[in-house]
Every structure is written in structure tokens, then in C-alpha cells.
Amino acid sequence: MEIASEGELFKHLRNNQRFDEFRSAKYTYQVADALNYCHLNNVIHRDLKPENILLTSSDDIKLADFGGSAHTLSNKRKTMCGTIDYLPPEMVDGRTYNDSVDQWCLGVLCYEFLVGSAPFESKDTQKTYEKIRRLEVHYPSLLSTGAKDLISKLLRKQSDGRITLVDVMKHPWTQQNMQKRNALLEERALKSRAAAASNVN
């Protein structure tokens, strides 16, 4: 793969504690796009988390670490794998699952981007499992209505109730924040060019 000079996204998340909505929306969109490509090619990632996402010098993501992934034409699996805080209910209960486990993980990831910790995180593994089974999610007041709406549509007990990855990319929260972010970047670029021009004059 191409060089990802900024390393693991996990490092940047810990340094910042959490990301703002503009940055979170961009990363969520790009991860959804990458996962959608995987699913179109019959690959389930199964271990989505900040440590398995790399950043390029242009602040774009690269999905990495496919050691736990599965290529399956049937789209059915039963192996329990991944990271405890990110496990979907069907894996916790040992049931057969499909590629929608990646949507669940994306919901956990989006929450962690915005809050700085995973929603089901606990020091005790069994408590984590119970929180996942009960869908025990606390949405802090810092989360916007749009962010909560997207996360809640991904963190569904029933796998067929989770929105598609394409719908994640089209979700109003994702789109609006990406548009605002692009507008801010364009404004900064214009100011920078104006400053450079005035220095020349």
C-alpha cells in the first residue's frame, strides 16, 4: 500500500483526546467508503478500531490490518474475533453473523472519534459483554443530534436494522459536516493566498 506517513489514527485521537465533528465526519465517511469497497469484494474486516486505521500526509485514512478479515462468498461467519470493546451482539452471543458486523464497529468508532472512548468500554470483560447485549450507550451532551442519530442507526442489536455503509456516507450529519469543513479549508486557503500576495506587494 502507499505510505501513510502520519501513522496510526489511534495516536492522533489520544493526542487530541477526541476529534471535532468536522474531522470525525470526514473519517467516518472515508472508513465507510473503504468498508463498502471491502464488502463489494466479499471481504469482512472484523477488526475495525483506531489502531487499524492509518493516516496519510493529506489527512486521509487508509484501512489497515486485515489479519482478522474474512473473504466469504456466502457472507456468513461464526468465528469470534476482533477487539472486545468493538464486538457486536451476535459475536458476543456466538451467533452466525454477516458483513454488517463492520457497520456495528463503525458506530463504535464514530462514537470514539467524538467522545474519546468506546461506548461499551469497561475494565471487566463480562461487564463489557453485558453492556453490549443491553445496548447500554450513554450519549454525552457534547454529541449533536445528528451524530447521535447516525451512531444509533449503526448500533442496532438486529444486524438487518443497521443502516448501510452507503447510507452512512449520505447521512445528513456526515454530509453537512464535510461541507462545512471544506468551506473552512477553502476560507483558510484564500486568507493564506491573500496574505502571501500582500507580502509580495
Automatic annotation (TrEMBL):
Residues 1-174 form the Protein kinase domain. The active site is at D47. It comes from the Eukaryota. It catalyses: L-seryl-[protein] + ATP = O-phospho-L-seryl-[protein] + ADP + H(+); L-threonyl-[protein] + ATP = O-phospho-L-threonyl-[protein] + ADP + H(+). GO terms for molecular function: ATP binding; protein serine/threonine kinase activity. Keywords: ATP-binding, Kinase, Nucleotide-binding, Serine/threonine-protein kinase, Transferase. Gene3D superfamilies: Transferase(Phosphotransferase) domain 1. InterPro entries: Aur-like, Kinase-like_dom_sf, Prot_kinase_dom, Ser/Thr_kinase_AS. There is a cross-link at K49 (Glycyl lysine isopeptide (Lys-Gly) (interchain with G-Cter in SUMO2)). ATP binds at E2, I3, A4, E51, N52, D65. It holds the Pfam family Pkinase. This is Protein kinase domain-containing protein. It comes from Glossina pallidipes (Tsetse fly).
